[in-house]
Amino acid sequence: MDTTSSDAQQRQEGVTPPRARIFINYRRDDTEFQAKLIYDRLERRFGPENVFLDVQGIQLGRKWLEEVKSHDDSCHIFLSLIGPLWMSIMAARDQAAFVSPATDWVQYEIERALRRDSGICVIPVLIGDDVPFDAEALPGQLRALGEFQQAYVRGQHFESDIEFLIDKLETIARELPEPVTADREEQPPVPVPAVAWDVAPPPDAAHCENVLRQMMDEGSLVLFLGPRMAAAPVGAVEGTSSLPDAEALAAALAKRFRVAQARLPQIAQYVYMTRGRPDLYRTVSRLLTADYEPGPVHRFLARFPGTLAKLGHQKRYQLIVSTNFDTALEKAFAEEREPYDLAVYMASGPDVGKFVHFTYEGPHTTIHEPNTYTSLPIRLDYDYELKRTLIVKIHGAVDGNVGGYRWQENYVITEDHYIDYLSNSPVESLVPVQVLGKLRQSHCLFLGYTVRDWSLRVFLKRIWGGSLGAKSWAIDPNPDALEKEIWATSNVDLYTADLGHYVGMLGGLLSQPTRESAER
Q1: pTM of this prediction?
Q2: Do residues 42 and 169 make contact, with C-beta atoms less than 8 angstroms apart?
Q3: How is 45-95 classified by DSSP, letter by letter?
């Protein structure tokens, strides 16, 4: 390498380099010594305030994770040091996570740098000669490392290689855009159908961008599907024109058994006590087993991973929690040929009181020990990343047969059912630990979830105590003032919108190029 280049001369002459914040990611068992050498050379050129190495850059008294995340989020250039042991350590840590869950912080830092539109320049730096590096063998979220141009720092060529790396970093730094100090251009509200907005406002573009960011960049959004979901049927059932929600089921039961209109748990309790179990379940099953077509929400969720891939983004999978008994969501995923796992709460049969896990590959497992079961497609790390979509049906499901496992009369529907389901034991002995961890670490989007029904509020109370830990959102086509007050005390912002139109807004925004990509 010609060390008389203009960049080298500028360094020798003490010219101030272009400003760039550089984050060094490494494994101590692989490249600790080389990471310190590289830090020393970069620190001399770019200044100690602009180069971060965990053992060098963490201030006394600061929490380690907060400090790492702070520097990771604010960096311009991310160096991933890959030595001779890096691939084998990565594979071993990934396999061990299933037996003894633990966060791989090196992988965590890389995944944060690889987030969509992070604006971070990622450089894999191979440390040593003939370093094994096969991106296709990495966990899904890390395979994008193979798309970036690699740099090399070899033992016998250390000086020339580090000089070349510094030249490259300075070139990148000079091309960084100037800091933007002006306020972000205000986005006009996305038009929505005319509905009553006196209780809650309609969702705007900023809200939709925030939701999509959580779904695409962070993978930290859990979807809750409530009883106000609807879908168009193939054939009408007892005069209904759409997949019956909780209110329609309650109305049908009230009409069939000639009782006063009330909430579904109350009417179901009355029918169960006065007419008996067979009459209740037979009527509910007749209403729910028609061949209903999935609605727009079901189809949006089923298409979401494939849509990301078609648009060139990293695939993200979802945890979808449903209170509904019908199979419209599963049908939508099957029609899209999008893999998913299913976890169903059993309110009857030999596994009563437990969840049963149905894998996409076929086998099923009764979850006898929720606090130790770790075979759901959710990584037990800091972000609880999903390896495949997981649908969790917390109130049971309509009569079904999955992989030879049959169930009938599997509904949490009466008041006694809800009381038994929600109050007889700690939530950790009911909800699988992976689902519980993901819920408590995530933002939530509630679609058609009616919190004025005490049965639905109790489940949220059991999971989060009082308020949800992360800011969350609820979309309801016809909310009332009571729901607004309840959501407000739970750290949830309420918006008024037709659910089909709402997911149409998300889909339209998803397909638009970002401002950053348009300016490149």
Answers
A1: 0.61
A2: yes
A3: HH-GGGEE-HHHHPPTTS-HHHHHHHHHHH-SEEEEEE-TTHHHHHHHHHH
Question: Which residues, at least 6 apart from 30, have a Cβ–Cβ distance to it below 8 Å?
Answer: 81, 82, 83, 84, 85, 86, 89, 127
In a domain, 127, yes or no: yes
| Residue 348: both structure tokens together | 């009857």
C-alpha dihedral, 91 to 96 to 102 to 103, nearest 10°: 10
The dihedral through the CA atoms of 405, 410, 412, 415 has a sign that is negative
Q: CA triplet 469, 475, 481: central angle to 5 degrees? A: 90
What residues contact 147, with CB distance under 8 A and at least 6 apart?
135
429 close to 367: Cβ distance less than 8 angstroms: no
**Does residue 178 carry a pLDDT above 60?**
no
- The structure tokens 């759409």 sit at 242
Q: Please classify residue 60 by burial: count the beta carbons closer than 10 Å to its beta carbon, then call 0-12 exposed, 13-18 middle and 19+ buried.
A: exposed
Residues 210 and 96 in one domain: no
Distance in angstroms (rounded) separating the CA atoms of residues 435 and 324? 18
More confident residue, 201 or 187: 201
Per-residue HEC secondary structure of 172-203 comes to HHHCCCCCCCCCCCCCCCCCCCCCCCCCCCCC
CA angle 334, 337, 340 (to 5 degrees): 70
3 state SS of 244: coil
Alpha carbon distance 394, 418 (integer Å)? 11
- The 10s digit of each residue's pLDDT in 340-390 is 999 999 888 899 889 999 998 878 999 999 999 999 999 887 678 899 999
Query: What pairing do the DSSP bridges indicate for beta strands 340-346 and 354-358?
Result: antiparallel
Query: CA 129 from chain center: how many Å?
Result: 38
How far, in Å, CA of 126 to CA of 137, rounded? 16
pLDDT digits (tens, 9 = 90+) for 115-158: 765 678 899 999 998 899 988 788 766 778 888 889 999 988 89
pLDDT (0 to 100) of residue 390: 96
d(CA 469, CA 389): 23
CATH code for the domain in which residue 401 is found: 3.40.50.1220
| DSSP bridge partners of 96 | none
Spatial CB neighbours of 341, under 8 Å, sequence gap ≥ 6? 357, 358, 359, 360, 376, 377, 388, 389, 390, 391
Contact 448, 245 (CB under 8 A): yes
Residues 493 and 366 in one domain: yes
Range of the domain at 272: 246-287
Type of residue numbered 161:
D
Statement to judge: residues 282 and 342 lie in one domain: no
Q: Which of 170-174, 239-243, 364-368 is most confident?
A: 364-368
Burial 23-58 (b: 16+ CB within 10 A, else e): bbbbbeebbeebbeebbebbbebbeeebbbbbeebb
